[in-house]
Amino acid sequence: MDINIYELKELHDIHKFFRGFRAHGTTGWWFRGHADVDWKLVPKAGRTEFYLGPNRNSGKGRDLGRFNHWRNLAVAYVKDLPENDWECLAVAQHHGLATRLLDWSLNPLVAVFFAVAEKPDCDGNVYCYDPELFVKEKTLPIDFLGVGIGFVPRAISPRILNQRCAFTYHGPPEGEILVKPHHVWQDHSNLAKLVINKNLKSELLQHLDDYGMNHATLFPDLDGLSRDVNWETRTMVETKTRSTDEPEGAR
For residue 173, is it within any domain? Predict the structure, then answer.
């Protein structure tokens, strides 16, 4: 079955679209934004620059070995690192480690933000996915084989809380989510894609900021604050440049 693809042509249409694709608590539709419409739904550990392949002896992904290496070193920086494998993997993911987790949000506006905040010269998109199966942390090991399984962590960090974060698990890490009929609506696929024209990115980003959706709120630390102030500064510079470039009679 093919993925359902939609195109955002007018700014106000985004509200209509997300009335049809909604999360219900931690179930229902999940959302992920891509700044480049050509990016694939593959976690960082499965991408070319990080993919190490399986271990020759065990056949398991070598990315888990790198995760354990990170974990042994991370205790020097985080004294209360979670003992639970799944939660620790989520912390590693949110601090930039290449893992087999792929970030999603239960808030569609978070996904829209990530789709429009970068790469202004490329069309972006928001993926909508409705997972059918979910991780049972107490019984499921982090090296099992399965792709697209949903994982909803506890709010173990401010970023996870503010971004209303969820993950899909990809084992092996290079595995892509299988597009198939939705488990309730059989005439619709379990995966949908909303394409956002690059010409709408700047305006959408401004609207999201008006709603309080920006780097400072999604990354509640000094890094996020700095990114947000930098964006405001660039916007001021661009506005000043446009004003200077306008013909005298147009002012």
Answer: yes
- Let me know if residue 215 belongs to a domain: no
Q: Are residues 147 and 246 in the same domain?
A: no
Place of tokens 């899909």: 168
Give the count of beta carbons closer than 10 Å to the beta carbon of residue 188.
Answer: 14
How do strand 191-196 and strand 124-129 relate by DSSP bridges?
antiparallel
- Could you give the residue ranges of the DSSP H alpha helices within the chain? 13-20, 62-74, 85-94, 108-116, 158-162, 201-210, 215-218, 222-245
The pLDDT value given to residue 186: 82
| DSSP letter assigned to residue 249 | G
Tokens 């209509």 belong to residue: 16
Residues 194 and 246 in one domain: no
Residues spanned by the domain of 91? 4-209
Asked whether residue 188 falls in the same domain as residue 237, the answer is no
For the whole prediction, is pTM greater than 0.90?
A: no
212 Rama sector, left if φ>0, alpha if ψ -120 to 50, beta otherwise: left
Mean pLDDT of the chain, nearest integer: 89
Whether residue 194 sits in one domain with residue 247 = no
